[in-house]
Amino acid sequence: MYFIDVQGTLISDEDKSPIHGSIEFIEYLNAHNTPYMVITNNTKNASLDFYEYLNSIGFNFSYEKYLDPFMILESRVSKAEVAAYGSTQFLDSLQKMGYVLDYKNPKTVLIAIKEDFCADEYAQMIDFLLSGAKLVGMHETSIYAKNNKRYPGLGAILKMLSFATSCSYEVVGKPSVSFYEEALRRLRAQDKSAAFEKITIISDDVTGDLGGAKELGMQTLFVTSGKYKNAQEIVPSLKDALKPDLIKADMYDVLQSINGVSI
User: Fold this and answer.
1) What is the mean pLDDT of residues 14-28?
2) What is the pLDDT of residues 71-92, one digit of tens each?
3) Distance CA 7, CA 48 (A)
């Protein structure tokens, strides 16, 4: 059984097209009735919109097998008095969900990712946090890849703000325990015996997604089709306890390895 990341794993960070072998991998799981969840840190499009986009480009799986941070946000963050930061699409999605944006006296600073945060935005966040607002990230990715460039991910930004203000922070999406627990709960609708120890998680975020999953006992499979050009860029610097169990080039490589090999 599997947890499968999307950006950089199933679809390209560059143009959002399917990565080599990714559609075939999902088809293989469907054909063999293998339990899986597609888990993404999508924060730009509404959940159903992004799910429908994935189906429109060839991925065939039911909405019950999909999970992103928007789907559990309401259980984690109150809709009142939120100072939100991220892409225009993210802010629009929040307002459609009924969140009331407040940039005067917010109770929560809620952050998603974008490539062009400015110093004034960081300054405003710091003022709010020092005034007592709590800090929440939509996810905790290590690197944000776009337009053939790599930017600090939301995890890096959260750690920066935490260091600047001595505040702690919470995470809604991957790799939070609550997100993985919700994904597991939904996976059990496919197989009641599902447990973290039986799951292989596949992702291009080896320090974010896979690090948190490994701590929960999951098998980790790192694909180098997204954030990193090759495993040597990042794996040698990881602590031994957080190094991935398997490394593959892309989902085609993963699919090839399944033939005769249990992963």
Assistant:
1) 94
2) 999 999 999 999 999 999 999 9
3) 16
The gap from C-alpha 176 to its chain's centroid, in whole angstroms, comes to 10
Helix, strand, coil % in the chain, rounded to nearest 5: 35, 20, 45
User: How far is Cα 61 from Cα 64, in angstroms, rounded to an integer?
Assistant: 8
For the record, the structure tokens of 151 come out as: 């930017």
d(C-alpha 234, C-alpha 228), whole Å? 8
Q: Which residues contact 17 (CB under 8 A, 6 or more apart)?
A: 11, 57
- Residue 251 tokens, joined: 């989902």
φ, ψ for residue 27, nearest 5 deg:
-60, -40
Amino acid letter, 110 = L
Q: Is the preceding omega at residue 106 within 30 degrees of 0, hence cis?
A: no
**Structure tokens of 222?**
């790192």
In angstroms, what CA-CA distances link 214 with 175, 180, 223, 252?
A: 10, 11, 15, 23
Question: In this structure, what are the phi and psi dihedrals at residue 139, rounded to the nearest 5 degrees?
Answer: -165, -170
Q: Could you tell me if 244 and 212 are in contact, meaning their C-beta atoms sit under 8 angstroms apart?
A: no
**Angle subtended at Cα 117 by Cα 116 and Cα 119, rounded to the nearest 5 degrees:** 125
Phi, psi dihedrals of residue 130, rounded to the nearest 5°? -70, -20
Q: How far apart are CA 135 and CA 162, in angstroms?
A: 8
Residue from 14, 69, 61 nearest 38 by CA: 61
pLDDT greater at residue 69 or residue 145: 69
Q: How far apart are CA 262 and CA 234, in angstroms?
A: 26
- Give the pLDDT confidence of 223-234 residue by residue, as tens digits: 999 999 899 999
Q: Which helix (H) or strand (E) holds 45?
A: none
Q: Is 163 exposed, middle or buried (0-12, 13-18, 19+ CB in 10 A)?
A: exposed
